[in-house]
Amino acid sequence: MKSVRTILVMATMAASLATFALPAAAQKGPGPGDGQGMRQGQGKSGPSAEKRLQHLTRQLDLSAEQQAQIRPILQEEESQLAALRAETTLSREERRSRLQELYAATFKKIRPILTPEQQQKHDDIQQRMQERRKSQSGPAPTTPPGK
To answer: Is the whole-model pTM more than 0.70?
Structure first.
C-alpha cells in the first residue's frame, strides 16, 4: 500500500514537472547550434533580401517605386551570397574581401535609385557604423603579444 502511494506521488511530481518544463522548452524554440534560433527572415549569414529591403525602406523612407526597383537587386545579391557561402576553398580574408566587393557592387546599383537626400542619409549611417566598428575593435597593440 505504501509503495503504491509512493509511486502515485512520484508520478504526480513527474507529470507536474513535465507540465512546467514543456511549455518553457516550446517557448525557447530551437537552439543556437541548429541554425533555427535566428531572427525570423534571417539566414546563417544575415537577413533575407526582403528583410534588407524593409530595413532600407525604414532607414531611407523608400517609395513604393524605389522598393520595386531595389528588390531584384537585393534578390540577386542574395543568390550571389549563397554561392559565396557554398564556396569552401576561400580563406577567411578572401571571403571577407569578396563580401565587401559584393556589398559595394550592390549599393553601386542601388545608389542611383535614391534621391540626393537619401544618398546623404545612407552615407551618414555608413559613417556612423564605421566609427562604431573602429571604437569596438579598440586600439591596436603597440607591442606584439608575448614580448
So the answer is: no
